[in-house]
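Appendix B, example 12.
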Amino acid sequence: MSTPPISDEHEHEPFLHQALEQATFCAPVPTAFCVGCVLVARLPDSNPIVLSKGFSRELPGNTHAEANALAKVQSLSSLQLQSLVSPWPWEAAPVVEDLLPHVDVYTTLEPCSVRTSGLPACADALIHARVRRCIIGVQEPDDFVKCEGARKLKDAGIEVVWYGGLEQECLDAARRGHHV
């Protein structure tokens, strides 16, 4: 008798836990959230492959977790991509643009739709990257701005999954260092 396939719900949890771990690396500040993100490629006939991870303010310039994870995966060379994804499923040389439509984004907090700093919103970056799906730990609270990142993603044709079960952990991580 074969083992039944693992449901999406159970498949998402380990990656959201990795995103929560990334959020712990973020230096807390009172004017921004601490967020973690993991980019996972899901190719046919392959186990999920973690391509990159990121957290808020990891890279210079008041950066957000999703933008950092994207920047790190977009900086990978063909050789690095091929070592992560082996065998490479396409005939052409490895380029990240071939992988991004197969990527699930795991983020502890809804991707931002507006930045008070004037930097590009994470939802826009994910749309531009043409990722497949975004699995979100918790909706962004209205502490700083009204977020419509999930709606923007859906409107652009990206599947949005609200993962239930880790909302409080994700919210606690996001508000670390805040006085609420």
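The chain has a mean pLDDT of 86. DSSP finds seven helices and five strands in the chain.
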